[in-house]
């Protein structure tokens, strides 16, 4: 018995000893955690429960030349509710007034919000969505509603802020202004947004948040730990009015001709400032939108608009003058085994060099360049190089297409290269590169770099100003300039662009019609063209230069540059003439317009008639019709603008003074 008791006692001692050493080991481990690795574990715990979240800085604004907003960052707020942190007393006291306030702001029933909050409370939801995409003013109102005004802990308010990029003028010039990449939030690569991203991007801020249930995070404080710094603003050269004119003029023509895509650029002659760029591509449903930046990025064979460069090279090198006689024959001529055709059936015969450009004779220009440069083609190429036509313009907007002008030794060079280049084939230029050259003609030979930005601002203070940069101070002699300008005026007056001529305002330019994809086997059965028009206005003292390019118009409706692209140019010029006072004087204020005089006599005769019946005013100018009817004692209500298309009282009815008549104008 004594032996068994002693054995049990020994076993107890062993167990007690083990427990002692185990407790000692735990104490040592705790001391090690507390004092040796304590800081490390405290930081780890902190990292798991709190985290610094990045607050993106607001991007700077992009402005038009008159201060109108083209792109701006707008803060948006999502409101959520932590149903756990609020006390029962505060919850029950504020539930109804909070729900009433939300109902008044957002239109949903009070019961909807009460049920939502009660359910969140019952489910212990710490991240209940209340409302999304609030603007700043509504965010402030929600933040000050009952319960929410108590803040994140007592009131359970969770505010999530983000910034959204908006374009106040809509989709017009969207590709030029630039937009956020749809698959990379916060990334800007195209347009002004991409070109000046470093300036527009500010410095990020940081905000400390605490981890709550289900991997969700809640701000510890309303105050940002590090406030973000906004990016700089940029003032572009885009003019909203001219941009709107260019966009709608292009859109109308693309829709009518069912074209694949097109672009327009309007440049201010003296400064190189780009006042408008429109790029419209066709969708499968037949609508158009700013698809790609064709104006800057798309290199293509320019066709007949390049004939101006070819003619100028020959004039400047003095190998011809404008009166040199060129034999274009019967409209077909063979160059090195390949036939070149003129669009005019039967040909133009023997004509002057100036006339060859006016009528856009392929044979005429090919003959001029081949006869005078075939023995030394580098002379012609060097002239083009001196005009910077082999180089990009260097605009900051990303994606500028590379010009391609072959020279002897290149794979694309052959004996036919030279005559082909003379009328705009076997080379490639972008619309902007072509316009830069035409703008130099308008600018008395001074070639300026195209410019999309005027200045950089910070808090409405100028940081940097961008001035006009001269690429080439004089592309050619005054004599050559004078001659080419005169020919370009005559192209519109009596040449290929004569359908565009108007005595009310002057334009100078060159039509272009180029075959495209002609190397494809189906071209003869499905012909595709690029229609273009490049020039400047007013012709005598140019203020703006402009280029219009339309790709693959429906050949059933037309494809010549004068018919397809020229009217867009004319419409833009007309609208700018109308909206801006380019012309300050009227030559003969006393001159009588016979049409106006005849209309007045007819109107006066009607007015003198003894009014017994309602007159027929359909087709009359609205203002004249109103004056006539009111003088007869009728009350006139007008709907619309223009001429009278419909009148509510039938003509021939007995007239009663004081009657109301409604005129529909269109």
UniProtKB/TrEMBL annotation:
Keywords: Carboxypeptidase, Hydrolase, Membrane, Protease, Transmembrane, Transmembrane helix. GO terms for cellular component: plasma membrane. The keyword Protease applies. Residues 609-666 form the PASTA domain. InterPro entries: Beta-lactam/transpept, Beta-lactam/transpept-like, PASTA_dom, PBP_dimer, PBP_dimer_sf, PCN-bd_Tpept. GO terms for molecular function: carboxypeptidase activity; penicillin binding. Its main location: membrane. SMART domains: PASTA. GO terms for biological process: cell wall organization. It is found in: Membrane. PROSITE patterns: PASTA. The chain crosses the membrane at residues 12-31. PANTHER family: PEPTIDOGLYCAN D,D-TRANSPEPTIDASE, PEPTIDOGLYCAN D,D-TRANSPEPTIDASE FTSI. This is PASTA domain-containing protein. It comes from Aequorivita antarctica. The lineage of its organism: Bacteria, Pseudomonadati, Bacteroidota, Flavobacteriia, Flavobacteriales.
């Amino acid at each position: 018995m004594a032996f068994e008791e002693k054995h049990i006692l020994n076993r107890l001692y062993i167990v007690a000893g083990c427990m002692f050493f185990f407790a000692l080991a735990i104490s040592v481990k705790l001391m090690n955690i507390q004092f040796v690795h304590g800081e490390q574990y405290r930081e780890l715990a902190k990292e798991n429960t709190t985290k610094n979240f990045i607050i993106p800085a607001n991007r700077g604004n992009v402005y038009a030349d008159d201060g109108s907003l083209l792109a701006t960052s707008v803060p948006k707020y999502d409101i959520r509710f932590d149903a756990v942190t609020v006390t029962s007393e505060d919850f029950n006291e504020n539930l109804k007034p909070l729900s009433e306030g939300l109902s008044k702001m957002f239109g949903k029933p009070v019961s909807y919000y009460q049920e939502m909050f009660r359910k969140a409370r019952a489910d212990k939801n710490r991240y209940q969505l209340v409302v999304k995409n609030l603007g700043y003013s509504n965010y402030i109102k929600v933040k000050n509603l009952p319960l929410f005004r108590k803040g994140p802990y007592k009131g359970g308010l969770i505010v999530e802020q983000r910034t959204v990029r908006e374009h106040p003028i809509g989709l017009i010039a969207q590709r030029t202004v630039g937009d956020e990449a749809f698959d990379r939030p916060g990334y800007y690569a195209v347009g002004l947004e991409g070109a000046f991203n470093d300036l527009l991007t500010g410095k990020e801020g940081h905000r400390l948040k605490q981890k709550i249930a289900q991997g969700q995070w809640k701000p510890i404080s309303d105050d940002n730990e590090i406030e973000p710094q906004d990016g700089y603003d940029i003032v572009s050269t885009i003019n909203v009015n001219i941009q709107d004119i260019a966009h709608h003029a292009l859109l109308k023509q693309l829709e009518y001709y069912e074209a694949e895509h097109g672009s327009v650029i309007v440049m201010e002659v003296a400064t190189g400032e780009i006042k408008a760029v429109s790029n419209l591509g066709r969708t499968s449903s037949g609508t158009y939108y700013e698809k790609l930046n064709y104006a800057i990025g798309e290199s293509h064979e320019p066709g007949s608009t390049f004939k101006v460069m070819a003619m100028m090279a020959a004039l400047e090198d003095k190998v011809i003058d404008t009166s040199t006689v060129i034999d274009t024959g019967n409209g077909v001529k063979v160059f090195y085994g390949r036939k070149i055709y003129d669009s005019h059936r039967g040909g133009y015969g023997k004509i002057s060099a100036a006339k060859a450009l006016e009528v856009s004779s392929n044979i005429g220009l090919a003959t001029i360049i081949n006869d005078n440069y075939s023995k030394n083609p580098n002379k012609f190429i060097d002239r083009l190089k001196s005009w910077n036509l082999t180089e990009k313009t260097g605009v900051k907007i990303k994606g500028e297409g590379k010009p391609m002008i072959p020279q002897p030794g290149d794979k694309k060079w052959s004996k036919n290269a030279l005559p082909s280049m003379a009328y705009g084939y076997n080379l490639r230029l972008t619309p902007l590169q072509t316009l830069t050259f035409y703008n130099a003609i308008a600018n008395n030979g001074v070639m300026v770099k195209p410019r999309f930005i005027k200045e950089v601002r910070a808090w409405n203070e100028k940081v940097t100003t961008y001035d006009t940069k001269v690429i080439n101070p004089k592309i050619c002699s005054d004599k050559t300039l004078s001659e080419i300008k005169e020919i370009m005026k005559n192209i519109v007056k009596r040449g290929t662009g004569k359908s565009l001529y108007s005595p009310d305002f002057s334009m100078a330019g060159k039509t272009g019609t180029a075959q495209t994809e002609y190397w494809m086997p189906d071209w003869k059965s499905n012909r595709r063209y690029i229609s273009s028009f490049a020039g400047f206005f007013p012709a005598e003292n140019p203020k703006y230069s402009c280029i219009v390019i339309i790709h693959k118009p429906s050949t059933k409706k037309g494809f010549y540059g004068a018919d397809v692209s020229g009217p867009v140019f004319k419409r833009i010029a007309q609208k700018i003439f109308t909206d801006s006072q380019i012309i300050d004087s009227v030559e003969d204020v006393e001159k009588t317009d016979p049409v106006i005089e005849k209309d007045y006599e007819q109107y006066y005769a009607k007015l003198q008639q003894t009014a017994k019946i309602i007159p027929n005013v359909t087709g009359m100018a609205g203002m004249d019709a109103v004056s006539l009817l009111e003088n007869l004692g009728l009350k006139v209500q007008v709907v619309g603008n223009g001429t009278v298309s419909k009148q509510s009282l039938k003509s021939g009815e007995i007239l009663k003074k004081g009657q109301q008549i409604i005129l529909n104008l269109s």
